[in-house]
Design a protein that fits this description.
The chain is α/β, with parallel strands linked by helices. Helices cover about 45% and strands about 15% of the residues. It is built from 10 helices and 7 strands. It has a 7-stranded parallel β-sheet, sandwiched between helices. Helix 2 links the parallel strand 2 and strand 3. Helix 1 packs across helix 8 and helix 4 packs parallel to helix 5. NADP nicotinamide-adenine-dinucleotide phosphate binds next to helix 1 and helix 6.
Amino acid sequence: MNIAVITGASSGMGKEFCSRLFKEEDARLGAPYDEIWVIARSEGKLRELARSLDEKRIRVVPLDLTRSESISALKALLEEQKPSVRLLCNCAGMGKNGAFSEQSVEDTHTAISLNCEALSAVTQTILPYMTGHGGKRSAAIINIASSAGFLPQPNFAVYAASKSYVISFSRALAEELRDKKITVTCICPGPVDTDFIKVSKSDPNATFTGFKAKFVTTTEKLIPASIKAAKKGKTMLVYGMGQKMLHLTSKLVPTRLVLFFERKMK
Ligand SMILES: NC(=O)c1ccc[n+]([C@@H]2O[C@H](COP(=O)([O-])OP(=O)(O)OC[C@H]3O[C@@H](n4cnc5c(N)ncnc54)[C@H](OP(=O)(O)O)[C@@H]3O)[C@@H](O)[C@H]2O)c1
């Protein structure tokens, strides 16, 4: 059984990946898939997604990925089904906005646990099932990082640090898996119009404001570009001109200077 696995599929980018991958069926990303496994905590939203596409081919796997027993449950499901995993999209992620000193230990733990530990654990659990299909490529991994990972971000400190982890981890893994013909594509978007900002500010009406508002994109634009990058086997996609400039700045300008100008611009 050939499958794709998508974490964070109940909303935003993960949901968009699921809809597009279901419809596109591109062999370069291992399609056709007998099943797409969708993972998130909100079982109702995952079932709704399955109903809107094909309940027989979308397997709902409701898991809280910050819990170690969820990783064990995923492992057990893989051992039982013994699928060939052609594609893994690690989209589940969150981050809380605001001063570190004012955030709860629980929020800090959740962000690190979900963005770093769960992404690594899901990948490590699934890798033995990326056995390949004899073509140019055995399997593909897409990790959603963020342009927040390029530089330290005051008032988004834990999130930015966690996304630096995703970038570094993805690039190293891409090298490790090269000989196995498994590609790893790290996606670095700027602000995207999803529920992320609402979760981030703990406000169901929250939107991006200030400088970030000028660079907001949509999943309808970002996800096709991400799929295209993964099809080409690109290691990294920095999405949008603003984020490309930020990436370049992070490489050329000393971090303390960037932080100084950021402080002055406030
Ligand atoms: N939107 C942006 O501006 C932006 C920019 C750059 C990068 N990103 C990154 O893009 C990725 C996707 O975010 P998004 O923008 O699509 O936000 P989103 O709409 O809030 O989606 C986040 C997804 O993660 C899932 N999730 C959250 N906690 C989870 C947990 N404990 N266990 C399992 N799943 C969990 C959520 O599902 P449940 O709540 O149902 O569990 C949801 O499906 C994240 O990694 C985020 O950091 C976002």
